[in-house]
Every structure is written in C-alpha cells, then in structure tokens.
Amino acid sequence: MNIDIVNENISFDVYKLRKEFPLLDQQINGCPLVYFDNAATNQKPLSVINSIREYYETINSNVHRGIHTLSERATEAYENSREKVREFISASGSNEIIFVRGTTEAVNLAASTYGMQFINEGDEIIVSAMEHHSNLVPWQNLTSRKKALLKFIPITDNGELVMDEFKSMLNEKVKFISVVYVSNTLGTINPVKEIISAAHSYNIPVFIDAAQASPHIKIDVKELDCDFLAFSGHKTYGPTGIGILYAKEKYLDLMPPYQFGGEMIKNVSYEHTEYNNLPFKFEAGTPNISGAVSLASAIDFINEKGLLNIARHESDLLKYAENRMNEIEGMNIIGNAKNKTGVISFIINGIHPYDTGSILDNLGIAVRTGFHCTQPLIEQRYNLPGTVRISFAVYNTVEEIDRFIDGLHKVKKMLS
Amino acid sequence: MNIDIVNENISFDVYKLRKEFPLLDQQINGCPLVYFDNAATNQKPLSVINSIREYYETINSNVHRGIHTLSERATEAYENSREKVREFISASGSNEIIFVRGTTEAVNLAASTYGMQFINEGDEIIVSAMEHHSNLVPWQNLTSRKKALLKFIPITDNGELVMDEFKSMLNEKVKFISVVYVSNTLGTINPVKEIISAAHSYNIPVFIDAAQASPHIKIDVKELDCDFLAFSGHKTYGPTGIGILYAKEKYLDLMPPYQFGGEMIKNVSYEHTEYNNLPFKFEAGTPNISGAVSLASAIDFINEKGLLNIARHESDLLKYAENRMNEIEGMNIIGNAKNKTGVISFIINGIHPYDTGSILDNLGIAVRTGFHCTQPLIEQRYNLPGTVRISFAVYNTVEEIDRFIDGLHKVKKMLS
Amino acid sequence: MSESNIKNTEKEIIDEFELFNDWIGKYEYIIELGKKLPLIDENLKNENYEVKGCQSKVWINADYKDGYLFFKADSDALITKGIISLLIRVLSGNKPDEILNADMNFINEIGLKEHLSPNRANGLNAMISKMKNFAMVYSNQNVN
Amino acid sequence: MSESNIKNTEKEIIDEFELFNDWIGKYEYIIELGKKLPLIDENLKNENYEVKGCQSKVWINADYKDGYLFFKADSDALITKGIISLLIRVLSGNKPDEILNADMNFINEIGLKEHLSPNRANGLNAMISKMKNFAMVYSNQNVN
Ligand SMILES: Cc1ncc(COP(=O)(O)O)c(C=O)c1O
Ligand SMILES: Cc1ncc(COP(=O)(O)O)c(C=O)c1O
Hints:
The complex is a heterotetramer, with 2 copies of chain A (about 425 residues) and 2 copies of chain C (about 140 residues). Chain A has 2 domains: about 15-45 and about 305-415, Alpha-Beta Complex (Aspartate Aminotransferase, domain 1), CATH 3.90.1150.10; about 50-305, 3-Layer(aba) Sandwich (Aspartate Aminotransferase, domain 2), CATH 3.40.640.10. Chain A has helices spanning about 5, 15-20, 45-60, 70-90, 105-120, 135-145, 165-170, 190-200, 220-225, 250-255, 290-305, 305-325, 355-360, 375-380, 400-415; strands spanning about 25-30, 30, 35, 95-100, 125-130, 150-155, 175-180, 205-210, 230, 245, 265-270, 275, 330-335, 345-350, 365, 370, 385-390. Helices cover about 40% and strands about 15% of the residues of chain A. The relative contact order of chain A is 0.16. In chain A, strands 4-10-9-8-7-5-6 form a 7-stranded mixed sheet, sandwiched between helices. Chain A has a 4-stranded antiparallel sheet with strand order 13-14-17-16, covered by helices on one side. A two-stranded antiparallel sheet of chain A has the order 1-2. Chain C has a single domain (about 5-140), classed as Sufe protein. Chain: A (Alpha-Beta Complex), CATH 3.90.1010.10. Chain C is built from 6 helices and 2 strands, in the order H-H-E-E-H-H-H-H. In chain C, strand 1 (about 60-65) and strand 2 form a beta hairpin. Chain C is globular and about 45 Å long. Chain C starts with a helix and ends with a helix. Classes of the chains: A alpha/beta (about 425), C mainly alpha (about 140). Chains in contact: A-B, A-C, A-D, B-C, B-D. The interface between A and B is large, with 95 and 95 residues. The complex binds pyridoxal-5'-phosphate (PLP) (2 copies). One pyridoxal-5'-phosphate sits at the interface of chains A and B.
C-alpha cells in the first residue's frame, strides 16, 4: 500500500498536526501509543487545554449575576461560546442552545420534560435498533412509566436502517422519534434528513443523537430541520462535562424546566417562582463555565482544520484499514453501511474481543472491546459476545493502522 | 489597626500563598484586583489548574468500560477522586459519593428521585427562610406537583434560625427537611447537627446544602449523621461542572435512577434494563472526568493548608472587616449570627447596592450585589432592594479590606 | 429634521464626556444627571412600566403629544438614573420613527461600554427596548 | 497444614512467572493454562454460576468433598480462562476457611496487576469473590 496515495487528498500535514496533541506522544507498555478509541472520547489539542488554563488564570468567576468586571468577562466568554455553538450547527438563535453535561443529559432532559409532558398512554415512540444506551434507556423508562410503546427501526445485516420498514411504522400514534445520526458501534451514517421529513409529514418531532456526528460531519440543524439535537464536548476535541442540547424554540417554550435553582429563575418568593427566559430556563445552577468556554476553542480547532478535510482524512484511513483488515483470515467486520465514518467494529473467528483488546493493549494500541453501550444491538441483533472497535480521529495515521494490523497478526498467533 | 496582631494566628504566609493563585495577580480598571466574590466561586490554585492540564496531556480517556491502559488510568484517577471525597467528608463508603454537576443538580436529583417517590399529598417538607434558590425552588416544584406543603424555619433579625420554632414544626406529616449549612448571604453557620438529631427522632431524613461549608468547615457526615449532603467543586477551590451528592446507602438503594444511559446500566436489552450498582446507578453517561480528577487536587490543596487554619484566617478577616465597616456612618450589616463564616452582606443608608458595586468595580474591587440567589430572604424577610456582599477565601488579606474600606468612603462621597 | 436632532444630542453628550479623563469624572457627572431625571408619576411605578433585566428597579413611561414622544423614568439606583437620563435626553421630544431608528451609538463613544458589558448592558438594552417599544406603539398609531 | 498449601502454590506460580522476562511469555503461558482449565458442566452455565462484572462471560462452580472445595469454571475468553485457572490452582482442594483467608497476593507479584488494573481487576475481584462466596457457604456448613 502506497502511503502517498492514501494521503494525497489531505490538505493538512497529519504528522505536524499530531504535535498539537500532547497526549499522543507517550509510550504505553513500552510501545508508542496508538489511540484508536476516539469514538469513546477523543484527545484534545493544546489550544483547548490552554483555553482551560487561560480561563482559570484570567477570568474565572461566576456568570450572569455579577456586575464586577471578572463576572462580566466570564459571562461574555460563556455566551460567546453559546454563539459559537449556534454557528457550528447553524441554529437560528443562540437561545436554542442549552449547555448540558453531555449527550446523555440532553436525551434525559428531553425525555423528562417534553416526554413526561406530551407522551401519553398508548402513544408510540420510535428509536432505531442501533441506539446507544443513552438514547435507548431514557425512552424505555419513559414509555414504561407512561404505558406507551417503544418501537425499533430494524437494520440490515450491513448495519443500515430499513427505511421502508421505518416509513410503514409511522402513524398517528407515534408521538416522538429519536435516532442516532452516526452509530458509535457500526459507523453507519443514517439518512436522518429523510427520517425527519417523513416524520414531519405526521407532525412527529425528531431528536437526533449527534454524539458521533459532531467531530466528523457538518451538522446543519436548519437544513435537517430536526426538532432536537445533542452532542458531547468530549467527543468533539473539547473537554469532559459539557455538551449541547439544541431544540427549536417552539419546543423549548412548551417544555417545563428540567432542573430548578439559581440562574433559571426570573423572580422568586417563598411561595412561588417565575422561570427565566430561554436558554437560562434550562440551565439551573452554576454551569460548567470552563467547559463551555473551552468548547469554543474545540470548535475553533475543528473550523480551522475544516470538517471536510477531517472527514476526508478519516475516510482514507477507513478504506485503508478495511482493506488491510480484510487480508486477515477469519476477519468479520460488523457494520458495512455504504455511508460510514471512521469506525470499524470487528471480531476474528474464534477469538474473544476481550482477548484481542488485552493483547493489543500490551502492544500500546488502545481499542475498545465489548458492547460499546449498544448491548441489544450486539447481543440481540448480531448475536455476538461483543466486538473490538477501532475509531479514527483527525490525528491518526496509516502507520498506526499498520501497527494495528501487525498487532492483529500477533493476536492470532498467540490465541489460535 | 495592627496587621501583625490580626495575623498572629495564621500558620501560613498569605502573601506567599497568593502566589499560588495566578488569577489574583492582575489589574482591573487600572487597580490591582481585590477579589471578594468568593461565595459565588473561588479562585483556583496552580496545583488544580495543572492537574487539569496533566489529565488531558497524559491519561484522558473514557472511564469504566475500557480495558486499555489509558482507560484504566483515567478510571483509577476518577475513582481515587471519589475516595478522596469520601475521606474529605468522612463518609463510610465511596459508593455513597455521587459525582454531579454541582449542588443544584444534587438537590434536584434528591427531589426528583427520593422526593417524587416518597412525598405524597398532604406531606410536609421543611426548609429554612434563608435557602439559596437551588435549595428552595426544587422543593417548591416538588411540593406543588405533589400537593404537599413547603414550610419555612423562621429566622431572627440577626439571621439565626429560630430553633424552638423549628422543633415545634416537627410532626408525622413532615417527610423531608433540607437546610443550608452555611448561608451564602448571611454567613450564618446553622446548627445542623441539632436539626438532624431532632428530625431523626421523627425519622425524617435531612438534606444538608453544604455549598458554602465545604471551603470553610470540616464536614463530617458520620458525626452529623445527615442523610444527604451536597457541595460544589467550584466553590471549593476546584473546577466548575463538578459537585458531590452524598447520601446514605440505604436511601440511594431506595431511590430510582435520576438519568438513564451509559454507565448506569448493568444489562440492557431492547425491552428491559437492569440498573448498575452504587454509585454508578446515579452516574449516567460520560461524567465530567477531568472535573472529578482535579477536584481531588482541590481537596489536596485544602488538606495541605488545613481547614482549621483557613477558617481561622477567614475569621480574623471577618472580625477586622466588620470592625472597620462599622466605623462607616449609615452602615448596616445584614446577618449578625454569633456563628458565621467570612461572608458580610451590607447596605449603606440611602445608597443602592448596585451603585456601590459599580463604583467598587471601577476601583478593581469585585463584590456581589443583588439577591445572591436568596430573593425571598432579601425581599420578603429583610425587605431590602438587595445587598452588597463580600466573602473571603484563604488568599484574602487585611490590606485588601483596607482598600475596600477606602472604596466605601469613595462610594459615599460620590453618591451622597 | 429631527433625526439629526438625535444625532446632535448624541454629539453634544460625546463632547461633554470628552472633558473627563477618568471614569470618576464621568460617573460623578452621570450621578449629577441622575438627580435631574424627569420623574415618572409615582402611581405608574407598577409592572406595566417596569423594565425587567436590571439589578436595580427601573420604570419608564412615555407621553405622546402632537407626534412627539416625551419620556419620564425613575430608578432606585442613582447610576442607573443617570444613565436613563442620558437616554431620555437623546430620545425624548422626537418622533416615534426617529426613535425607532436611533442607533444609540453614543454609549460606546463616551467610554461607558467597557463599564457596561453583558450583565449590566442587559439592563441598558432592556431600557432602550422599553423606550423603543413605546415608539413602536405610537408609530403604528401614526400609520393608522 | 494446607494454609501453607495455598502459599506454596502461590510461591510455585511466582517462581514459574519469574522465568518470563516479558509480558508475551506470561500471556502465552496464561493462555496455555486457560486451555487446561477444569471445565464447569455445560448445564451449570447459568445465572447462578455466572460472575458479574467481567467483559467476558465467566462461570464458576465448586464441589465440596470431605471438607475440601474443588472449583471448576469456564469463560468465553481465553485470557480470562487462563487467569481463572491460576486462581483455581491456588484455591482448589483446600478447606473453606483457608480459602476465605487467602490474600491472593501472588497476583501482584507475578507482574500481572499492571495489566489488570481497575476495570479488568474488577473482573478479577469478582471471580475471587465468587470463589470466596462458595467457601463462605461451606464454611458455615462446617460450623453448623
Ligand atoms: C451515539 C452516542 N450517543 C450517546 C452517547 C453518550 O454521550 P455521553 O456519554 O457523552 O453523554 C455516546 C457516547 O458515549 C454515543 O456514542
Ligand atoms: C448555599 C448555596 N446553595 C446552593 C448553591 C448552588 O450551587 P451551584 O450553583 O454550584 O449548583 C450555592 C451557590 O450558588 C449556594 O451558595
């Protein structure tokens, strides 16, 4: 395989770019680290790490309520970040951007407010058969409390949604749909625009779990016309503990608050509370200020590299890796959608994923093994004990894939 | 006033210690910053800021589910932090320590799980008249949904709870009590141990809002015998976006999960989910890993300086400041409890808090003005348009208080 | 034409503020102005005339006379009063449409903006919105 | 006395592992051991015998004979089998009380701990707990 050919489309120098990621430059078990667990969380460029430090060294202060200069500066940085997120996903107003802990909290917020208010006995909610637990269990809980029904869009063996089936599931009883944009286990990029437009012909609101989309695909909530969307900072080259819930203003206005306390109020007496305007109504208590502020730096990083360049680079890595993996006897790649991001789940005949992962780790190669928080998909749909998953980020290289392939050969040698 | 006398009891050198806080060393509006807004959030020592950097530069990875080395290291750091928190508040088991976003989320978690499950129509919940909105509005909401009653422990003009009145409020209808340990507006240290033991004679569980206690007072949940307790990292020399809910295991076991998703599950199928053990049952989704990890550094910082030393230093500052403030004509200090931390709310006759705060800010002095998230206390109990509040941390000095007093004289000159 | 009226007053204020070379002078002047604010009737100090989003209480009312709007206001904080008094000096006595079109740029130019960033500016913006809302009401009246 | 039995076996294993100077040798040996694991009856591979908290499926059973406990187990992962087989070699054939008292320190000493930290160690600890639970049951039986 000729590396130059693989790299010819890349408009940035990945070897130079890697220097922006201090964590990558280390030995694990005596070997240089190969970090292929990016779908779990990706690594942070120095600009993001520095922005956290800068926040705490210069403007740290509580937001919104203070009139002193530091509080003004912290508030400005926090609100600028909201505006940056708005732009990043092309939302119309920054009052439609709610800061949350992560995608999981965003789904729970929607289920506990919109769901608890508007889902009734006998209603149906649709998710797909490839949801992450975070976009499955909240709806399981809601439907079981409401005596509503949870239905699953089936998937093909290749890991694609069966769209005809989906359309035939639509009817007046369906009151909400929540679907993953990009599967964290299969890499499948789902046709969410088509789902949304089909749903809207029945006036059904759609929630998009974009946790695996934000670092790879340009999200455009206006073009998608989705009603809700969520992603996590820590999967988007940003910090842990911060994420985004986007929702159309009309839904946010209808929804009761999720948490109660400081910031989300306009007027409080012992007897009664009047809630604040959007977006503050949904941000009770001191938020993760430094998290929000440094998420803006992560978005700057992505914008600077260009999402298209990042996607092209990862797609090259995907093709290269799949080709080389298919050379290995007994290799089964789980998830072969036509449209996928740089995520490869696999299992080698006769070798348990845990064994594969353990040996790769000893070679300094970080992969994920198990259910990847999609246990029903792995166990019930694919009838597997788990898979090994590799997933790429902007800083991964073909040489790392080569080391991974060498590692797989060692795994086979040791375990068969 | 002789500075040496004020400082004679301090076993650390505050001028040296200030060097550990990079943010303090800056000019605001042309004057050296005086940061007196510590009750809103305090500043972070370098050790904490560095621990965040170190986390992202060396071990950043998603926790719990990974078998590769980085994930192991991140998990170990995260769990070590839980253990450090357990020790910090003398809890019996680290499975009683739940990581949350902050105090506000902790109160909401308790109200939405324990409260929703166990509070019924006609029941009573008791809070005090000096609660922060975060420990008031969740209970307002819960009692209004449940058609239960919210009752308030009255306070004296000095800002102390009327304990006789409290005891007379206890009866079989009272099903929960939530009380602030230290008032963020008045500085009052409440007799929570007495409250808890009185409540327990009626088998009423007690929640302690320790947001303003954690940076100043040794919290000992075993000695207090409280059933729930919460504090925020960002008020404890730690990062934003992380906080702690402590609860006795027996209550955590009874409570349903709060959020649903990854991590909090043991076993998931399309149809049904089995929840995880404590503490994970209450930690859905990727947590604020870096926040938790650097909270451990904040606790190390506090332990190293010694909470007793910190408290003594702040108490010296309090006495010095109150004495000097009382020299000013028209000065009204709101909150004169016998037992208080370094918090002083005040209002100068005829001068609006907003005017005072604005002018002090122009002199580089950061104070808070307004309701301090205790609007009913300020408006209904004290009938004031707001107060100015100063609040101390370990790094404040008598010279800063002198500058503040000079600032007040300028305020009076300009505004009368 | 009274659009230049607004611009002229803004220019006047900018010139006055140039005389001060520190914030203290500016604040003292604003506080002086605050004391001369045309006050709203006490019985109008209610919800309808209140401006939300300020740390201090603010009430504003407008009288419409012969095609011109005249503002009165009050606040419990002096600096706030001074700032409203500047706003009133610029906007009062003009036609609704002119008021609607005013860009209020003088606020940046007198060097108050830096002392009036987001949280406080929210209050400032809320006051300007309230005044423009009155203008909107009477501007529509004109059209009908 | 068979407490030293346990300690002796631990010592044996430590000595064996000292022969390997890299993790590959150790893993290869563990995998070999895994292949020789005394297997649990297929019909016992159910919830009651399953060990929770491992990424791979693990089942463990114990037979009690004349005061001694004998373990059998299985797992769908080979490395896991190897590790259980070490545990069984150390604990099997001993009295319940001795099993309860075993500190299993050899795991640290054979240099596997660093390759078996928290998440994986959780699985390891779960296996040891399961075995000690059996010992607890039969230890009580003795007393009664
Ligand atoms: C598709 C998908 N949805 C939701 C989540 C949950 O995100 P978080 O753990 O950041 O809340 C993840 C990541 O774990 C994911 O991959
Ligand atoms: C007494 C008290 N309770 C609760 C809170 C809420 O804490 P947080 O905003 O960190 O959630 C605060 C701080 O704002 C407080 O001072």
